[in-house]
Structure formats: structure tokens, C-alpha cells
Records
---
Amino acid sequence: MTTTQLPSRRPAVPATSASPHTPRHRRPGYLREQLSGWGMIAPAAVLLLAFVFLPAILGFGLAFTNARLISPRPVEFVGTDNFARLFADPTFWRALLNVSYFAVVVVPVQSGLALAMALLINKKFRGVNFFRTIYFLPVVTSMVVVSLLWLFMYRKDGLINELLSTFSFGLIQGADWLNDPATAMPAIIALSIWQAAGFHMIIWLAGLQSISGELYEAAQLDGASRWHQFRYVTWPGLKHTRSLVLVTITIQALGLFDQVSVMTQGGPLDSTTTIIYEAVRSGFKQQETSYASAISLVFFVLVLLISAVQRYLTREKD
Amino acid sequence: MNKRFTRILATSIAAAALVGSLGACGKGSASATSDGTSEITMWTHNAGNPEELAAIKSVVDSYNKSGAAKAQIKVQAFPQDSYNDSVVSAAAAGKLPCIVDIDGPNVPNWAWAKYLTPLKLSADLSKNLPSTVAKWEGQTYAVGYYDVALAMLARASDLKAAGVRAATVEKPWTKEEFQDALTKLKALGKWQYPLDMGTAGSGEWLPYAYSPFLQSFGADLINRDGFQSADGTLNGDKAVAWAEWFRGLADQGFMAKKSGKDSTQDFLNNKSGLLYTGSWAADKARTALGKDLVVMPTVDLGNGPKVGGASWQWGVTSGCKNADAAMDYLSYSLKPENLAAVAKATGTIPATDEAAALLPAFAEGGANRIFMEFSRNYAVMRPETPAYPFIATEYGKAVQDILAGADPKTVLDKAVKAIDANIKSNGGYKN
């Protein structure tokens, strides 16, 4: 990205001997650079426009109609009927609650765990690459595959319960994790953190390595303890990384879908259903395109609001 | 020109050309489908089932080679999971093939959506199993080569050890006998759960397998008089009684709230004593257990045993430009020897007696003949309304919630509310 030299308008700092009094005069090759810039943007921009922005705008429009996936009836404008139905639907509120629960646990735990792993492997010792690979391995595995494997591990007679029973000498009989409304969401949370922490570990690691070693040397000279080094050198140095990790984990957590679709289908008793899962269920299984669009629109506004709040809280304060 | 710029331009053009050609590709392959020429396309759902696909292909081949063929049929197979989506998206793009495969209960929905055109076949359908002929609003829209039926499988030795009478078509188990049988089987101590109802199933299995119990209790998925409301039918006293009975099976430890991934395999591995499944599992079970296998009808919960009717069927799309040839092919394909070949390959019940006579297992006195009797005597069609796909998702969720311990009346009321709202928002699904 940084190597892409997009033409920037900086007539005040002319690179050549062009006079600052004639701002209309552009240095030679300006037009060509402008063109090549647009040329480079074009493929991505066209694809984004056609497959992201247009469908999104269409979706917003559909939310106010009674459009259906299969229907011989003409599409009619129905105002805010879909939203009225949505806000009166207890399943939607349950989905919202589930997603909040998921996010509130996953965001701090996953980022904390990822930071701890990053600190562990940000050292120079033999075999560090081995550990980096091990920690990163779950990330390159597809979430669907991970969910299928954990589905077996979470069974009543699955690996996790066998281990619990063996190591507690038969004292602990594990729950039927995914079929009990009380344990289904925590089970999904654990698996999600395990799968995704490695990715954020890499981001933290990049942040850690951008902190100059001289700062640590200076801190050591001043007699700072390891905790003080972390508190006053590392933590402030990770400011930007922190906001990035925070925003990406939050958005990822709000969009919870794969695990639920593969493992529980929203059950038992709606204890694991999520906003995206409800949208997919209404849109495809129940053929209610317009209602699914309404859910998506509400989800979009929610994500927008939350990211805006986060941006505001983590802004540069100067 | 600047060398770098040229390179960028070339790359962009190449990318644009690639995107363009991909688009053209999709268009090209789709436009070859429903033209009025001498070739018509047929879509089937069985790409993942080589035996069935081979049987269908040999029917098509024999038609194509026969001198009377009005058009050459081209088969395109899809995996079952993505089949419905493929049809829906093709319909949205106006690119449906001439002949499509349809899961029986979806026929009214597709007919209402004008995907399908009424069949005008020269073949006589009056002797077919009623559940293989899909009708909606007085017209026949699809016809199947076969049907399947639900049954109870057990080992004769287990029943004998527990002192339980094997159920028969003349005398199926009543609700009390079923309770008694489960209690005795459980007392044998051989299995954690004596009964396996396939409760881990999802999708269409849930309404297919469990709505017959609901109907045997005297309730139903929807009031079939006009198909306008489920109120009082799906949430009445009889439906609540069904839910409590079903939940009770799990509460008493007779069946798991969530069974294993492969119920048939669990039964064969002696992890359960009584298996509730479809006729498709019978051949495998008979190979494994031989004479010890007992095939029994499902339970009579008050209104006689019931099984879901209708499996995969064939229809002609309304946009087909050579519907005449499509109808001709379907009529040809319904010959007894073709039905027999497909039923043999799929282990299903052939649609007519004539075809059954060609198959030793289904002929009079054959080992699988009993399934034909189940189908003829017990089959209840899933409600023949365009609302069915919606009803199926709501009912499926209700079943899962009831098993998970929700209050039956609340769950059923919620399903009824959603179903009635859906019907209303679609103008009653009237044509």
C-alpha cells in the first residue's frame, strides 16, 4: 500500500523549479500519474461498487418493501412494517443479547490472550518460530472445519468431558456443552477465542516490534522493573495497535455466524442465536428477503455506531 | 508512453477482460438451457448419489436413443444441499432448465411462484402411489418415480428378550403399548437409550419425521381447510399433547435429546434397540442383521399410524420452450421398467405396482413389500400449500425447542403466530 505513489496535490512544495506563483502549472507527468492512479484504483473500485456498495444500497431499499425470495406477487412498499415486526420479536432481542454477551467476553479475553502470546514469542530464543507457527495454526484453519472438530470434542462423551473426567479421577462429569442453554454460548466463546487469538497475536507482535529497543535500554538504565517497562514503555507504545485490535475484534465478534451455523443452529432455546444468523435464516430458509434486509440494516447501523464510539474513545487527544 | 503506465494499463485491461469473460461464461452456459431446439436440459439433485444419478442417466440415454425422442435430454446434476438455491437463482435470472427435480412438499411453492407448469402427460398416473403425484389447486405439477416411508426397525431377538410383541400392519403399537415396549426394552439394560428417533437431524427431516406423530395425535401443521391459519391446529390441546408426549420420551430416558450423527449405524452397532427411520435404511440393516431384523409400522397415537408422503419428483418449468418434448420424456420415463430401475438403485418404494412386480424385494411377499403398505395406508402429504417451506422451518424450530425443554404451549403459539403472519403477508398465498 505504502509503495503506491498516488499523485498528491502539493503545489506549495514544488519538487521541481516550478514557480509557486503559478499554481496552475503542474509538473510534467502529472496527468499521466493521475491517470495511472485511477487505473490502479479502477479494478478494485468497480468490483467493490458492483458487489458491495450496490447490493448494500439495494438491501437498504428492500428493507422497506415486502420482497420475497420466491414469489409471483409484485414487490410493494410497506414502510417500516419490517422494523416494527423486528423490534417486537423476542428472538431478535435474544440475538442482540447473545451477541453482546459474546462481544463483552471475547473482546477483552481474546485481545488479552493474544497480547500475552505476543509478549511470550517476542523474544529471541531457539525455536521461537515453532511457537509462532503453533499459535498461528488455528487461524489458517477454516472456522467451519474448527467448528466441526469442536462439535465432536464438546459431545457428552467427547474429548473434553473424557479429559475432565480422567484428570479429576471421575469427580467432574462434564456438561452436555452444546445442548444445554447455560453452557452453549460459553462453549462457543472458548472455541472462538482459541481460533482467532493467533491472528491478533500477530498484530500485537507487529506493534511490539515497532517499539524501539533503545527505550527499553534506557528504562533498564533507570532501573525500571519488568512490570514498569511493560507499563510505561510497552503499553504506551502499543497505542495505535490497541485501537486496531479493539475495533477488529469487536466487529468480528458482532458478526458471529459460522460457529453458530455449524454447531448449534441458534439453539438450544435461542441461547446461541445471533443477528447475522437470524438474517440468514429469514432470508434464505424462510425466503423473507425484506425482513432479512431489515435485520441487516439494523446490524449495519449498530456496527457503525459502535465503531464510531470506539473511534471517538481511542482518538488522538491533542 | 511511460513503461510503468503501459504495464498498469495492460494489467487493468487484462483484469477487466477476465471479469467480462467470466460474466460472459456464466451467460453462455445458462442460455443453452431452455431454447426451443432439439436439446432440452434437465436438472437433478443427485450429484452426490452416484447410484441414483446413474439410474436417471440410463433412463435418459434410452429415451435419447429411441427413435421417437422429440428432443435430446441433457442431464445436469447438482449436490442436494445447493440444489434448491440453484433453482431459485436460475429462476430469478429467468434461466431455468426445461425439466427440474423437486422435493415433493415444495411443489405448491414453486407452482405458486410460476416456476412450474401443469403436467400434460400421456402416461396414466391413476395407479401411482397417491403420494408420488403432486397436485396443487386441482392441477398435477409433478410426478415421482418413488416414495419413501417411515418405519420402526428392531431386532427380533431383543423384542423377544424384553417380552414385547412385534407391531404389524394389522395391529400397530398403540401409545400405551409403545410406552410399555420402551420401558421393557430399557429394563434390558443393553442401551443407554433404547429408542433412536434421529433427534440430531435438521432441516426437512424434522417436519418429515415428527409431523406424522402430530397428525396421529389428531393435530396438524396447519388447518388444511383453505390453508389460511394454523391457529387451533398446531397449538390446540392435541398438539400440546403431542409435544408433551414427545418431550416425555426424552425425559423418561427412552431417547437422547440429540442422537448420534448416524442413527442407522448406531442401531447396527447396538447402541440403540429401536430405530425410527425411513425405508432407505432397510436394505443396509437387512444386510447386517439378516433374519433378526423386524420392520414395524410406526406408532398409532390415536388416529392410526402416519408417515410423511412424497419424495423427489419431476416437473416441467413454465418457461420451457419445448414443453411438448419435456412432457413426452416424462411420460416415457414413467414406464414400469424405468421406475423399477430407479427404485432399485435408490432402495426406495417404486411408484406403481407394475414396477414393484419387477423387483423381487417389492413384489408380493418380498422383504420390502411392507413399506409399500405403509405408504399406501399411512401416507399423509405435508400440507399442499405454498406456505409449506415456511411452516417447515417454524415447526422444525419448535421441535428443537420442545426437546430442549421449552414450554410446549408457548413454543407452539409462537410458531402459529409466525405462520399466520407469513400467510397474511403473502395475501393468503392465493393465485
---
Amino acid sequence: MAKKHIIVDPITRIEGHLRVEAVIDENNQIVDAYASSTMFRGMETIMQGRDPRDCGLMAMRICGVCTGTHYQRSIEAVEDAFNVTIPKNARLVRNLIQGALYVHDHLVHFYHLHALDFVDVVAATKADPELTAKEAIKWAGVSGHKPYISAAADFKAVQERLVKFVKEGRLGIFGNGYWGNNNYKLTAEQNLIGVTHYLKALDIQRDLAKMQAIFGGKNPHPQSIVVGGVTCVQDIKNPARIALFKTLLKEGTEFIKGAYLPDVYMAGTMYAEEATDSEATYTATKGKGVGGTGGGILNYLSYGDFKLDDTGFYNAEDLFPAGIVMGADVSKVFEVDANKIAEDVAHAWYEGTGAPEHPYEGTTIPKYTGLEKKEDGHAYLKTEEKYSWIKAPVYDGHKMEVGPLARMVIGYAKGDERITKYVGNFLKRSGLPITVLFSTVGRTAARAIETELMADVMVEWVDELAKNVAMGDDSTWTEFDFDVVSKDCKGAGMAEAPRGALGHWMVIKDGKVKNYQAIVPSTWNAGPRDAKGQLGAYEAALIGTKVSDPEQPLEIIRTIHSFDPCIACAVHVVDTNGKELAVYKVDPTCTF
Amino acid sequence: MGVDKQDSVKSLFTAQSAKVDTNRGDAYYEDLYAQCRGRLDELKNLAPLNNRMDFKESIEDEGLERRDFLKWASATTAMLMLPASFTPLVAEAAVMMNRVPVIWIELSDCAGNTEALIRSDGPKIDEIILDIISLEFNETLLAASGHQAEKQLEDAVEHFKGKYLLFVEGAVPMGMNGQYGTIGASGETFHDHLQRLAKDAAAIVAVGSCATFGGIPAAAPNPTDAVGVMDVVKGKPIINIPACPANPSNMVGVILHYVLTGGIPELDSLLRPKFAFGYRIHDNCERRAHFDAGEYVEEWGDEGAKNNFCLYKVGCKGPMTFNNCSIIRYNEGVNWPVGVGRGCIGCSEPDFWDKYAYERPMANAHIKAPTGGVEKTVDEFGLGLLTAAGVGIAVHAAASAVAGKKENQGEA
């Protein structure tokens, strides 16, 4: 039997427009995979010529899901260029705005963008509500928390609602799903827990988003961060606002600990075979791999983020430390050297010299070569040539994965006290080795571990903020003389977004943005092959995966979703005439 | 400046917006009431598209009081600028929203409007998905991917031909023959995708700044030649719900209005529903008294900021922007950009990225020329941006600054 080449487009339950093509052999095993972004807006071009203070709000519109993260990185790039250190209150408010994003984004990702890869909605109609309640209590026990929902009556109510929905009507957003696929491994009761929490999480996420709105003004797209600090001085001075933040955080944390984590233990255990089935990874990595299905390139990068003191952006201690782990070897952590970052366009729709270019020297000249129409009516990626709007970043010539897994692995490998405690606790309770993390399921677990950590640490930050304000410090902004500092400078905002390492670079001349460049998490993860043929993180993670039904790309989307794709973020600059627009030159020494 | 001049500036900003006629008279509302009644009776005879349980019932299931539901209905009636007598009709319409199929597509977007939709609190999003509207397709939430997703979309279009509301999020890139955005196995361009789905829609609702007026992709120099839906789709009713992102209350309001009347709400010249975009932010701003008193935030974090003073001088574009955020705010009323001390960036107005979105007053904006080229101040553009309102504001700001100085001198 010949190999089968399948297209999955659109990949749904992500941000943005993504296509995956996979080649499947006669044993239904993926032997080749290609990821392609199919949308392009030209955000960085739009920034050029603007007042640098105005770029943050525009940069935020790169993405409405990781909303606020590009905003802050852009503002930080300007602050780095102007050499402005923000006041303590502003640092804490920003930590809370971004922290709220992390817990909101990770929760929505797990339940609304990812869970249906594990949870069979239709199968939940067959569950016994009494047994479901017992099951929920059991997994909450594994996680060491009180179950968020434990009454059989509650599960029964959801089930009745679901039965009515499934039996009589159209399924709406659940329509035409992969229900009944062999690779749904949860029991009926576990599926009902998943569906119940899916619905409850819709409620919870509205409240978690309010946390960002308290200090940000609204969500999505908050508006209170400015170069030099934040504007929400009234909100931090108002004890009722602080109290509301704490109440919402407390309620959200109860769900995170009583539902999200137990569900991850549950799914992790039911899919543990795939997480520890290292054969596929072993084969795919020619003997170097550890972990299981969906492991991928096993190189991890983090720029570090969440400043814990007021010594300045690149001096402060980070909650999530920066670093690099290669080949899933947690015995060694390398320091990040920004000079080793380069982008390769061999397979991206841009012109290039053939060699990877440092982002400071890189050019972005569009060269769209299109898709290849075939007789079956489909248009296929020209995989031998260029096939994506995303460039292929490399670090010191290596492809890297970024995201919560990278942050947890690097923190653990560095022996960071807090991260080691949370990761260690998870591994101990699940009874699984650290290698389990290097897989699709592990990537999902790492995000949950990080969510719990973030929910807990935010309590400390909000108390610290309230205390600082109570002691009479109501400073929220550091003054600077724009006309003086904006004459000729450059800066970088390199830190972490929920999806991983995010950098915004800016060159400023006579008060205007001369050049703007962003390399975002999904550029690292979703990028195509480089000139050497090294696969991108998505692509590599798919190799070796067994697909139970080639007509139903369930396993493919499960692994892709584990990265939490955010594709609008990942795309670069172009103009319609193919003019060179983004020649980017920065003195690398000034970026840290 | 004389006192009467100040008074005239004041009256300019105290006047209700000329754009909305809030009281059309009894005869008008009696006719409308009868029309709505007829429409709802007609809908009642239709089976729900999804046979899902009633909104009201589900609210009761959730343990909420009917009183709360009526409270919501009454607030929504007010938001739709209907007399209180319409409240029972609005409540009934909410219960029957599941007779309206909705297909939601994403083009050159950031998914911010989908995210905003899932923040909806009245009604809540789980109710919207399961019980209220018949959300047939939304890429961000849809379980199926690839061919199965495409089939789901095709089925919905076929099944609800001519009946569905097509929600569009994101701009339409027209450059390079539309190839800046493609979707589906056939590599269909966003433009072709939109036209195909628009053809069989009952009406099109463009949500967010990008789908309405081009938004961020269309900001100068508009690298992909992006445009809004109304620039390319002709011969269909189009409702624009701009803002970045659009307020979910306004999305729900438009659907409710459609259920209630069978038609689209009254629109302004930019196809925005007047119920939401009939007033300037400034008209109902909580910091308005400080504007009237000439009390401004002069720089971030100053004494004015600590006292909630007016944000005009740090770039608030509330006086130029039509939207209802000063009334309904965001995230269940938790906050909004003026509340958080930043001010309005004019995000519900066309070309706001090039005209309004900066932290200085317009007079000394130094913004990027929308046409590209050399940077100029707003005055030099001669874009007609400095409308009567703009001039009045600037005059008032200057006048109060002078007045403030005089007072200080007096004290000294």
C-alpha cells in the first residue's frame, strides 16, 4: 500500500490560520509532516515610522488570545531603549496583568482548545453519574485537592443537558467531531467529568479575564500599560479593586486545583502509555530521544520572565529563569546568548541568501510561491520549496521548542526552588518519571503545573502591591524626557508569553520607529524546515505518531494543540509589491 | 476668554448626541411593538433549530431567579434604546434566539472578537453555545478540524441557506490576488471564502475593527491591501459592530434585535447600530465633570491621575468616538479604558490607528501619515479631523489651562 498524503486545513481550536500536511505509511504511522501558516498581515511594517510609545497597543493586536503580552514586550523594548526602569507598583501590576493572562489562557487552552482531543463528548452521554462523582473525587485525591464538582446530581444535570443536545438537535460547534474514534481512551464517566468541566470552565474563564480587566481596563486587549509604567493608579489605590482581584483569583484557583489539575492527572494517566512509549521518539530521533509520542525536537529555550525585584528589566531575578536545555538532557543548562538566534527562510515564503540570518541583519522580502493544485481538487504545499509564511528560527543552528514545557524543564534543570517543587510534586503524585514530560501529554501537563504555580504566586504579588500602596507609595510612572531619549536608540523586550519565548526589537531614530522586529513563540514552534532540513517543533513532534484512522486527524490535532498554536503571532513582514521593508540592524550588544 | 465662550464650549459637550433620536413618539413604538409581537409569534411556530432547552429554563436550572433574567432583559431593552414596555418582548426574544443559526468565520484577524464573545455575561457563553444561539461554525471553538471542519461548514450553509447570520471577524486582504490569506484544503482565498459564505447569508455582521473598517492590517501603509467586509460584499444587509474587540453585549444585542424584529437595527452612515454607536464616549463619561471643571491629567501618574481627572490631555479620544463603552463598560462592567486611567483610543472609528491611537491630544500628535510619506501634525493633514467637536475641545482645554494658571497665581 502506498503512502498517504493528508491535508488538515483548517486546524481549528487554535488562534490563527494553520495547515498541517502529513505523510502516513501503510501502518498508519506518520513518516513526514509539514506545518504551514496560511495568513499574513505585515504587522511589523505597520509599526515603522510611528511614535514608539504608540507601538505597544498596535503590537498587542498581533494576537487576541495571548492578549497583553505583545503589548508589554513592545513597551519594554522602548523602555530598554530609553533606559527607563518602572516603579515597583508598575512592575507588580504588570506581573498581575500577565499572570492573569497565563492562568486564563492556559485554562481556556486546556478545556476549550485542547480537551476535545481527549474527551469524547458523545460518549459522556453513557456515563453513570454516581460513578462519575466517585471518579471525580478519586482524581482530585490524586492531585491532593478538594474536587471542584463532586455531587452526582451535578454531573447528572450536565448529562441530561448533553443528552438533549446530542439526541435531538444539530451539534453546533461539536458537530462532525471525531466522536467514537478508537483513540479516545477515557471512560464514559471520565468523559462526563471532562464535559462538565468544559462547561464550567467557560464560566470560570470569564472571571479570570476580569482579573486582567481590573488593572488593564478590559480583556481582551487591555490598555493601561504605558512607556514608564502603568496608568491604573486609581485601581491600585482602591482596596475594593484589590479585594475583587483576590476574590476572583481565589475562586479561579479552586477550579484550577480542583478540576484542571485532576483532569490533567486523569488524562495523563489514561494516555501514559503514549507519554512513555518512547519507541516512536527513539526511532524519530535516531536513538537520542526520550519521552513519548509527540516529543519532537527536545531542545528547549526560555528567555525568562516575571521580574521579582526592581533592579531593572534585564537585571531582575525572574520567576521563570532563562536558559537552554538540549536533547532533553536536564543535567545541563546553557545560558541564552541572543547573538546565536538566527532565522532561516529556505522553506518560508521570503527571499534569502540561503544561510540563516541573525534577526538584526535579517531581511524580509516576500516570495510567495503558492500551493500546488492537484486533480483531487486539493491544493498541496510545495514541500520541496517554500511552504509557509513563518520563518524558521534557529538557536546556534539548532531548532528549539518554547513554551510552558520549556519553562518548566529549564527551571527544573536549573534547580529553581519553586519550579522544582511544583514539577516534583506533579511527578510524585502521578508516579511518573520526568521523561514523561517530553511528549504531547507532558507538554499539556507542564502547562497545568505552570498554571497552578502562577495562581499561587499571584497571591503573593497582589499582597505585595496592596502593602506597598498602603505604605504610601502610589507611584506608577517613571518620568523621562521623550525628546532627549528618543533621538537615536534601540531596545529589546525579550521575555516570555504564555506560549513561550517572545522578543520584540525596536530601532528608534528622531523619535520614530526606524525598524521593528518580533520573533514570537509560534515562530519557534510552528516554523517550517530550515535549509539543513531540520524539522520545526510541530513537524518533529508528529513524526512517528500512529494515526488510528487516517480519515480522522485526531492524533495530529492533539499533538499540534499541545503546543497551543497562535499563528497570527508567528508571521512576518511583507508588502504587496515585494519591496524590502524590514532590513533590521541592531547592535546586538545593547539588547541585554 | 469670556465666560460666555466657556459656556458655549460647555454646552457643545453637554448636548446629547445629534445622531440618535431617543424618543420617536408613541405611534412609532406602537407600530414597532406590533411588528415585534407578530415576528415573535411567527418564530414561536418554528421549531428551535437545535431543539435545545429554553434559555429561561436553563437559567432556572442554574439556580438563577427569574427576577435576574427579567433584570437582564430590562437592561438589554434599555441598551437597545427601546421603551421599557418592550422588556417582555426582549425576554421572549432571548428565549427564542435558538431559531437563528450563526456561522462565524475568521479572516485576517487575531481572534480577539471570538475571545470577547466568550466573555459574554448576558447571556453567558455556555448558554450561548449550548442553549441560545445555534452556533454552527466557529473555528476557534469547533471540535472538528480539516475536512470534517469544512464539511461542518458546508452542511450548515446548505441546511440554513438564506437564513443564517454570517459573523465575520478579521479584514479581507486584497493584495496579491487575495493570497495573503487562504483557508481549507483547496487553498481558497479569504476573499473568495467570504463571498461564497456571504452569498447565502440572511445578513452579515462584521465584528471588530478589522472586519468593519480594515483595522490593524489596514493601518498605514496597509501592507496586504486589507479592507473591511462592506468594501467587498455587495447586495447583502451588513451590520458593523466595530471596536477592538467589539463589545460582546453589542454582538448579543444585534442578534436579539434580529430575533425581535426580523430585521437589522437602525444603522448610522458607517453601518453601525445606533443603539450602540449613537453616542460619543464623552457624552456619558464618568470623568466628564472633571472635563467641565477643566481638571486634567497632565502626565501619567500625576496628582490629576490620582484623582480621576479628565484624560483629554493625555490623548483620550472620547470626544471623537461613538460607542457605548462609557455606559456598559467591559467584562461585566468591571472596568474600561477611561476607568483605568488610560483614555479612549477611538477604536470604533474608521482608521483609528492612523488618526487617534496615541497618548497625546490631536493638536500635537505627530502621527504617521496615513498615506505614508513625511510625518506631519494633525493640523497639517487637513483631513477634516478637527471637527467642530475637536476644535471646541482644544479651545476648552486651553481655556481651562489658562484659567487654572490664573487661579494658581491668585493663590500665590
